[in-house]
Specification:
Number of helices: 15
Pfam family, one: MGH1-like_GH
Keywords: Glycosidase, Hydrolase
CATH topology: Glycosyltransferase
Helix content: 40-55%
CATH class: Mainly Alpha
Distance between the termini: 27 Å
Radius of gyration: 20 Å
Number of domains: 1
Protein name: Mannosylglycerate hydrolase MGH1-like glycoside hydrolase domain-containing protein
GO molecular function: Glc3Man9GlcNAc2 oligosaccharide glucosidase activity
Number of strands: 11
InterPro entries: 6-hairpin_glycosidase_sf, 6hp_glycosidase-like_sf, Glycoside_hydrolase_63, MGH1-like_GH
CATH architecture: Alpha/alpha barrel
Order of helices and strands: HEEEHHEHHHHEHHEHHEEEHHHEEH
Structural class: mainly alpha
Low-confidence stretches: 1-11
Largest sheet: 3 strands, antiparallel
Mean pLDDT: 94
Length: 440
Amino acid sequence: MTMTMTSGAAQRPAVFGDVDRAARRVLATNWRRCATVPAAGLYPHQWSWDSAFIAIGLRHLSPVRAQRELESLFGAQWRDGRVPHIVFDPHVDPDAYFPGPSFWRSASAPGAPAVPTSGIVQPPAHALAAWLTYRADPAAARARGFLPRIYPRLVAWHRYLTARRDLTGAGLVAFVHPWESGMDNSPAWDAPLARITPAPTGDFTRRDLHHAAAAERPTDEDYGRYVRLARDYRDAGYADSLRVHAFAVEDPLGNALLAAGEDALAAMATELGRDPRPHLAAAERLSAALVSTLYDPAAGMFFPRDAHTGALIRSGSVGGLLPLIVPGLPVAAALIATARGDRFRLGQACPLPSYDLTAADHDPGRYWRGPGWINTSWLFWHGLRLHGETALADDLRRRLLERVRAAGFREYLDPLTGAGHGADDFSWTAALTLDLLRAA
């Protein structure tokens, strides 16, 4: 993979030059023709929000490659606007990952693309990534027609979420599978998942355990619930309604990314000579709905809401802090105070733990049940900068870079010891490290 270095490389701190070189090697190794796999063994296809974060790092090395990363993903967009969480590589053994193409059966779904995909989605980080990618080299983007191509696809993606996934009429988007949240195995999903009867273990073969220890991955029982939910959605023709979805939650992070994405779409609309006001209005509506529906002032953070019961799920996921990425968020100071408290220990724990450090069921090594991830810490760092907390942002940035240097580009890390877990040479860890290295 050949990459043309941009002027950002000159801003690289010399003390982290070894980290920079290693991160570039990871992204080069994980590139597959037109997109980047998250990790060569465990994740051999293209994942949706992974590609968004990967583009954010790639833009510093090759803005054109970053554009192609997003264009490849949106080339598999469904006619209804949804962006699938996996785009399957036809050059990879179809049994290399479960659930694979034969499980999702996208070819028989109305409006699906020619390339095989999954039928569920992931958090909408793409508009933010596209705007950052454009800004890395506007001249190259204009020469390729990047914004005129990607903008209408992003609009259709957001329209799908706001029109098809507002299952309660509250103005918030619901995720209908834990995998859609990006935080697949979070304790935040335990209560609504408990209503789901797991698929028998004989109905599926777990490929993830070929690449990671069972102690670091979801249990067979939870995996059976994931399979049941995905199968029911598939068998319903990927129709969206509360009658179809036994699991449906309005998630703070997903809705915050959508609001921040609308702000990014407004900037793109202005660049294209279009009216940005509809996007700004959408961002304002989403932000207001987030605060009025999902924010708990006593806890100083946001909680998901069960769309079936209307009750908040009072579980301390890091997602409850990440609406900090929303411009003008009125409760930003409270989120930062919560992050600095005992539950998340900003300034000590690094990366930010995915789940409340004081909770009895915190597990620092199991997938999304306690370990820290570079992408969620990057989002919080982005939010700190957005809200003028530069000293805290700089400290978090330095700690993250030190953790990566010590542990390598692991999928996730123990937030207190820094021990690495999950996949090695994980692409968004490498990509976001490159972005942190070049932060002005």
